What we know:
The protein has helices spanning about 1-10, 15-45, 50-55, 55-80, 80-100, 105-130, 135-165, 170-190, 205-230, 235-255, 270-300, 305-335, 335-355, 365-390, 400-435, 440-465, 475-480. The chain is mainly alpha-helical and about 500 residues long. The chain has three domains: about 10-195, MFS general substrate transporter like domains (Growth Hormone, Chain: A), CATH 1.20.1250; about 205-260; about 265-495, MFS general substrate transporter like domains (Growth Hormone, Chain: A), CATH 1.20.1250.20. Helix 11 (about 270-300) packs parallel to helix 15, helix 11 runs antiparallel to helix 16 and helix 12 runs antiparallel to helix 13. It is globular, with a radius of gyration of 22 Å.
Amino acid sequence: xxxxxxxxxxxxxxxxxxxxxxxxxxxxxxxxxxxxxxxxxxxxxxxxxxxxxxxxxxxxxxxxxxxxxxxxxxxxxxxxxxxxxxxxxxxxxxxxxxxxxxxxxxxxxxxxxxxxxxxxxxxxxxxxxxxxxxxxxxxxxxxxxxxxxxxxxxxxxxxxxxxxxxxxxxxxxxxxxxxxxxxxxxxxxxxxxxxxxxxxxxxxxxxxxxxxxxxxxxxxxxxxxxxxxxxxxxxxxxxxxxxxxxxxxxxxxxxxxxxxxxxxxxxxxxxxxxxxxxxxxxxxxxxxxxxxxxxxxxxxxxxxxxxxxxxxxxxxxxxxxxxxxxxxxxxxxxxxxxxxxxxxxxxxxxxxxxxxxxxxxxxxxxxxxxxxxxxxxxxxxxxxxxxxxxxxxxxxxxxxxxxxxxxxxxxxxxxxxxxxxxxxxxxxxxxxxxxxxxxxxxxxxxxxxxxxxxxxxxxxxxxxxxxxxxxxxxxxxxxxxxxxxxxxxxxxxxxxx
Length: 497
């Protein structure tokens, strides 16, 4: 009898097959995502495509992911999570092969957009499979493992990408990712049970999915090209108008469908809105910074690092963020989630602002402390915001709230990377036109891009007041670990003891 009670208390343990499939695929997807910015100079040299154009390999991936991540979860609930997860794996393999075989920048960008759909599907359905195959404390252990795999992939990506550029060419990353993803297919077929939600409406909000793309594509296009077109040009303003019309259409569509992509009523929740903005800014600033630094470190007028050296140079930020993540929840519980988010954005804003003083004669040593402080700050803001986004709503609304938060990560990454890339390139061009040396122009580009990110972080401090009245409950460490990259669609901190 005692054994039965102990098993009930421990909860249902996730099977080996679903652990392997979910964790390995998540590791590969995140490693792939974080490695691509390191590969851009090599891809540019090989294909003859300007890096400014290849920026779409990053932003395109994220904007497609934003449009697909919630829909893929809904498809899994209706048609079977294993079936949709397998579709994501197959699509990921196809996208890797397409990218590796591409001889043009257009092929790489198209492959990355397909990969955005595949990656978001793998993350959404893999997490769902893991959640339904376990329960109680055992579920939290499984989520902790999934979060560790997610974080390890994000940290290892730039290093692995850097090694492979020198050893096999930039294509090597995608061939290896294709092989690993393909290996997850038989594991999923033979070791993972199918599951679906019989109570969910079979309606899929295709209109909402399309309208998310209608909103984001012209926004990213305007942010990417506005510097060349002119911010008051017809083309730029037209993009903003199309995006605004897309927002109107999205709101109207979501009010009419039976199973909306986003429950608009949730936006009456100030805590959810505040945490979503915080999540968006965290994702946006770290993606923007890594994009700029990967180019600056490898530029001959910068540090002229190899891809591997550039990957190693970004390691302090990623490693510190992972290292401090388990400590964030106790700090947030002690000082309060709003205070933790405010402190986090203040620290990261100061770190970004310090990079705004970048000069052509700076050595790498000048970057280390700002990178470490930035990582601590963003981790401190991200953890409480991720937790608040789900713990501030009713249990029945957790799935919708986590979908909004996960979408915000992709939206923030795509928009901020586009804006940062434009500021970086425009500042470099303007300073060169004024007679600055290549090194001086490059430092000016980094400076202006860092100032933009500092303004984003400090602006988020003002918005953090939206988190004001939320009291954070006890959050399991598993949620904290997984929140490094994603918001977990489970209710945390409400287990029976």
